[in-house]
Amino acid sequence: MEGELKEVREAYESGKTRSLSWRLSQLKALLRLLYDKEDDIFKALEQDLGKHRAEAYRDEVGLLIKSVNYAIGNLRKWMTPNKVSVPLVAFPSRADIVPEPLGVVLIFSSWNFPIGLSLEPLIGAISAGNAIIIKPSELAPESAEFLARSVSKYLDDKLVKVITGGPDAGQKLLDHKWDKIFFTGSPRVGRIVMAAAAKHLTPVSLELGGKCPAIIDSLTNARDRKIAVRRIIGGKWVACSGQACIGVDYILVEEKFAPILIDMLKATIEKFYPAFDTLSKIINKHHFQRLASLIKDPSVADTIVHGGSMDSDKLFIEPTILLDPPLDAEIMTEEIFGPLLPVITVKKIEDSIDFIRTRPKPLAIYAFTQDEKLKNRLVSETSSGSLTFNDTMLQFAIDTLPFGGVGASGFGQYHGKFSFDMFSHKKSVMRRSFLLEYSFRYPPWDGWKLPFMRSVFHFDYVSLLLRLLGLKR
Ligand code: NAD
User: Fold this and answer.
1) Is any atom of ligand 1 closer than 6 Å to the C-beta of 78?
2) What positions belong to coiled-coil segments (predicted)?
3) Which of 43, 194, 322, 462 is deepest in the core (most CB within 10 A)?
4) What is the pLDDT of residues 302-333, one digit of tens each?
């Protein structure tokens, strides 16, 4: 490991990553990797998670191809310095914001979207001109091995490396000094990462999880109801069997609508999964046991209204719906991260707002409603990484929206230009002219200098002049 880190650092210091051509060449190489090795990715995801190839393409390969193409198309613009206006006190001068790479960055990824969540931040880190070490999760070993094999083959292997291993490898990596650490994973390990980063004052982004609620208003139109139910299932079981950070964790619905909703969920699950053979498996025995224990307690088990069957050999848990499990049970206090879906009833749908506000800020809130007043209240009265009306998960695919958490769901936003910004330092560059020299800036402090300075700082004469000359609106 030491040798690899030294090599990456030295290669970064050569300045190679700074050019547009290196960055573009790496993004194009990544695109080639995704096209050439699609089948290998499908196989790795099938072995690690039992992910169907359609789901693997929908949630990982396809999204990555879209993101790389977006970065390739915008990179020149992102790298261009931004000219900004200057106040009178600095006139005449020029000021620019120049993005520069941070240096050597460390990316930790999780096991649920092991390819997507390793390569999506990589796109931003390359675009911003950094050297990169990726540490994939050991819990998805085929995907980690695939990344180690193919990244070194397709990308510049002196500047982009994959280091595999478990917590020990992670700890060793954290002992080193990095210029940025980007972490996707649990709050527990997030704390370890932050503590290690603090020693070197390394900036950190934490992409964590939490409990993402979906509010379902009693939609009046039958077609809309049907679509809402499909989209909820798409954002729960179809997304890695509920093992997704932005997957639906639980539903909030009015008491009177709950039975209708549950019937519709059951019918659609049966339609989507007649034999459950395309449903992803639970990642390992430990997580299987964790999920099983969430519904073992009789006070919770008694609330199961659909599903509940499981097979520990196949790591299979049936899509399971619970109606009003106790709110102090673990299933309602911890992130579920699996195929169990509590439906929580409220008297009025507006009560959902208080329900959410009294809990940690989620990574995502979903709300299915046509009520504009409710939408506006949710926008202004709740806080979450994202808020999506009438769909689930799709916000992740929008390059022009920042993706990340707030409060307990993490901090630091990426995707599209936000990724470029996350992995860049915005350097202020000022180019001053020798043309004018203002003596009011210096002693001796004559009586006129203070009032003069006041007028200079208080009033934007430069803008006024530019406006008078028609050069600024
Ligand atoms: P995790 O925290 O167990 O592992 C994440 C990474 O940290 C892995 O690469 C792992 O090898 C490494 N690691 C584990 N222990 C370590 C240690 N002691 N020192 C250094 N490194 C260590 O998380 P996970 O189980 O892989 O992922 C599940 C969690 O991730 C869930 O909470 C989920 O919500 C969250 N998540 C968030 C996002 C997001 O984009 N916000 C996406 C996916 C998952």
Assistant:
1) no
2) none
3) 322
4) 999 999 999 999 999 999 999 999 999 999 99
**Closest ligand 1 atom number to CA of residue 403:** 40
Mean pLDDT in residue range 220-232: 94
Does residue 432 belong to any structural domain of this protein? no
The tokens for 335 are 């992130």
Q: Is 432 helix (H, G, I), strand (E, B) or coil?
A: strand
Same domain for 98 and 164?
yes
- Residue 355 in any domain: the answer is yes
Same domain for 248 and 137 = no
* Contact between residue 168 and residue 196 where contact means Cβ atoms under 8 Å apart: no
| Same-domain check for residues 217 and 200 | no
Active-site residue set:
207, 245
Q: Give domain status of residue 134, yes or no.
A: yes
Residue 95 CA: distances (Å) to CA of 80, 417, 427, 428, 439: 13, 22, 10, 7, 22
| Domain harbouring 328, CATH code | 3.40.309.10
Please report how the helices 38-49 and 20-36 are oriented relative to each other, as an axis angle in degrees rounded to 10.
70
Identity of residue 78: W
Total domains present in the chain: 2
Task: Determine which helix (DSSP H) or strand (DSSP E) holds 407, and give its type and residue range.
Answer: none
Supply the range of the domain harboring residue 140.
2-208+414-426
Give the sign of the dihedral formed by CA 407, CA 408, CA 414, CA 415.
Answer: negative
CB atoms within 10 A of CB 238: 26
What pLDDT was estimated at residue 461? 72
One domain for residues 252 and 191 = no
Q: Which helix (H) or strand (E) holds 447?
A: none
0.90 surpassed by pTM? yes
What separation in Å is there between the alpha carbon of 188 and the centre of ligand 1? 8
Write the single-letter amino acid at 368. F
